[in-house]
What we know:
Layout: E1 13-18, H1 21-29, E2 38-41, E3 53-56, H2 58-61, H3 71-77, E4 82-84, H4 88-103, E5 109-113, E6 116-120, H5 131-145, E7 150-155, H6 158-165, E8 173-175, H7 181-185, H8 198-206, H9 212-216, H10 220-227, H11 229-238, E9 254-265, H12 268-289, E10 293-302, E11 307-318, H13 321-333, E12 342-350, H14 366-385, H15 400-404
Parallel strand pairs: 2-4, 7-8
Antiparallel strand pairs: 1-6, 1-7, 2-3, 5-6, 9-12, 10-11, 10-12
Amino acid sequence: MPINSLQSTVRCIIHLDMDAFYAAIEEMDHPEYRGKPLVVGADPKGGRGRGVVATANYEARKYGIRSALPVSKAYRLCPHAIFVPGRPQRYSEISRLVMRILGDFSPQIQQISIDEAFLDITQTANSFGGPKSLAEKLKTRIRAEVGLTASVGLASNMFVAKVASDLQKPDGLTICPPGHEKEFLALLPINKLWGVGPKTEARLRDYGFNTIGDLARCSQEMLAKKFGKWGAHLWALSNGIDQRAVEDGGPRKSISQEHTWDEDVADPAIVEKRIWKIADDLSRYMREEKIKGRVLTVKIRLEGFLTYTRRQTLSEHTNDAELMREVALKLFRGFEREDKKIRLIGVNLSDLNTHGAEQLQLFDQPENKNKDKVAQLLDTLKEKFGEDAAARASLVGERSHEFLGAEEVMKPKKKNLEDLK
């Protein structure tokens, strides 16, 4: 059955994936980057950086640079590339524009990351001239209104649509007609299966499975015997079977920010200063998004990659930077790290409330209004003059205890590390 002649009884699913999203936004905002290898992520520090690549444009990918690659290796692969830090707020802003456009084509949207989403267009396709026509119009609108390209996969289920969207990047449109799912997948390498990473791929190849078709030719019982329930799941996917419905993932469950140092730090004052900055950044974003959180978690990673978390439930939902900072510092100071240096610090807000964030409290205190005015002033200055144009005076000191007014920066309670895992 041609894809443009689908009946309402046949599901029609789109998977849309923005092309090199972060890098594409940087190129859009900085035309001088275009045509040159561009890497978004940590500072490479001349090949000594310890962070990772968030994404790379297609020119940089020619050198083998990919997401999650250590930035030091990316630098060695292409030292003449342009390396820029990420701008999460800008990327979120563009993501919202894209998702609003998607909403004009179908009410059934499942966003699975900042730059990709599924749409069930079974009931809306005919209004746009059929599924293929809808996909083309969707891509055209994103290019015209946002200035970026997207790759689209069109199929009868979510798995095949996602595989299809990756086959003709960038700016691709790949269609799998209904009834041809097994044939469409058969010659693709085994790592195209959803959930098959490098380790799983190696294991499957050890059994002689090199393509998706190799798995599809096995019986479900045999794969279940070799791999358990996961084997039965692999059999279904390899045969192009995926019954999942496109569903709204529901409200966002948490929001967080982390910072990794290039060199492990021993001075807790440096960590506390970073906590102040994280609290300010999270507060600003949450106020823009009208989000408040009630459970605050501090994440700490020590040398040797030992990672621990501590959390506290607040008395009410908040997006106030001062309260977030106070609680985060309290949790951090109560942690005994046994003289181990710190590699990473992060703050997470969960139990989010996205509905009542703008409701005024019954007895709104004057000091709360003053806090809001200060926060709004900082936001305005940063928006007009850049992120570094303004900061709370507390962030200016070289050492945290200088602006905390504390006689001693850290008096941790004795705790066993194992108790905090």
